[in-house]
UniProtKB/TrEMBL annotation:
Residues 1-40 are annotated as: Disordered. Residues 7-59 form the DUF397 domain. This is DUF397 domain-containing protein. It comes from Actinomadura rudentiformis. InterPro entries: DUF397. It holds the Pfam family DUF397.
Length: 61
């Protein structure tokens, strides 16, 4: 997963002042998550299965 990838999307639950999380899908199908304030910072990489499980869990909260 590259920090220069396209298609990064902000969470709809993000703070309008810039404190937000972005996610993007890589060509290998993995999903990257990063802090938008530091586009060159670390990216947490999820498999599609792990991403689906995370979203399902978050939606029940």
């Amino acid at each position: 997963m590259s920090t220069d990838g396209t298609g990064w999307r902000k969470s709809s639950h993000s703070d309008p002042d810039g404190d937000c999380v972005e996610a993007a899908r890589a060509s290998d199908g993995s999903i990257g998550v990063r802090d938008s304030k530091d586009g060159a910072g670390p990216i947490i990489k999820f498999t599609p299965t792990a991403w689906a499980a995370l979203l399902a869990t978050l939606r029940t909260r």
